[in-house]
Amino acid sequence: MEKREELHRKAVKKAESRGISTTGEGGYARHVLLCLGTSCCGGEDHREVGRRLDKRLGKLEKEGVYVYRTRVQCLSFCQAGPVLVVYPDGVWYHSVTVEVLDRIIDEHLLGGRVVAEYAFARNPMNETTPARPGGESAS
Ligand code: FES
Predict the structure, then answer these.
(1) CA of 82 to the centre of ligand 1 (A)
(2) How close is the Cα of 96 to the center of ligand 1, in Å?
């Protein structure tokens, strides 16, 4: 039991350090998962998409737009990659190049409009209230 409590404490601390809400209040408004696994894509061009995701979302976070990002090795889809999913919207994109990623960020994440030409599935999750990580101010 003590070990579980210690692991729990460490997990909460790490979540807070990453801006992930541990209370249900605040936290990230969206979570973007980008698959760069070799079964649906590969190569330097795809790695550049990952670097671009980090750069753009890192910059937006400094401006007060909080989108959690995760690079993954498989989304159990394995086709037409790189595949990117935006939650809680549940929008799945295929063929995500750097140019397509910029459109997804500008049009979907910032503008609220799905990039229809690349969106092949829409499976929205629960509604959330956009907020900042940990309820902290952006300044
Ligand atoms: S390797 Fe990308 S979805 Fe499986």
Answers:
(1) 8
(2) 13
**Whose CA is closest to 19, among 85, 64, 76, 86?**
64
Walk me through the domains of the chain, giving residue ranges and CATH numbers: 28-133 (3.40.30.10)
Per-residue 3-state assignment (H helix, E strand, C coil) for 35-82: ECCCCCCCCHHHHHHHHHHHHHHHHHHHCCCCEEEEEECCCCCCCCCC
68-101 per-position pLDDT tens digit: 999 999 999 999 999 999 999 999 999 999 999 9
| CB of 78 sitting under 6 A from ligand 1 | yes
Ligand 1 atom nearest the C-alpha of 77 is: 3
pTM of the model: 0.84
3-state secondary structure of 131: coil
Question: Is the beta carbon of 57 within 6 A of some atom in ligand 1?
Answer: no
